[in-house]
Write a structure and sequence with these properties.
Blueprint: E1 10-12, E2 18-20, H1 46-51, H2 56-65
Antiparallel strand pairs: 1-2
GO molecular function: ATP binding; protein kinase activity
Organism: Tanacetum cinerariifolium
Keywords: Kinase, Transferase
């Protein structure tokens, strides 16, 4: 799952298709280790904020917010 949706991580190609960038190191992060002060927190779904659930649906939510 992609955790850091922000305008800085979305690129547009010549056909105006959105591409995600800035993956960095993606791995499983225990809920207790997820930082709660990230600027991208404003883009997270309610389920992610309340229960730490990262799902394809929460990614769609975050992408829509951005």
């Amino acid at each position: 799952m992609f955790h850091e949706f922000s305008t800085a991580n979305i690129q547009i190609d010549k056909d105006f298709s959105a591409k995600l960038s800035g993956y960095g190191c993606i791995s499983y992060i225990p809920e207790t280790d997820i930082p709660n002060s990230s600027p991208a927190m404003a883009n997270l779904s309610v389920e992610t904020l309340e229960r730490g659930l990262l799902t394809p649906k929460s990614n769609v939510w975050s992408f829509g917010i951005v």
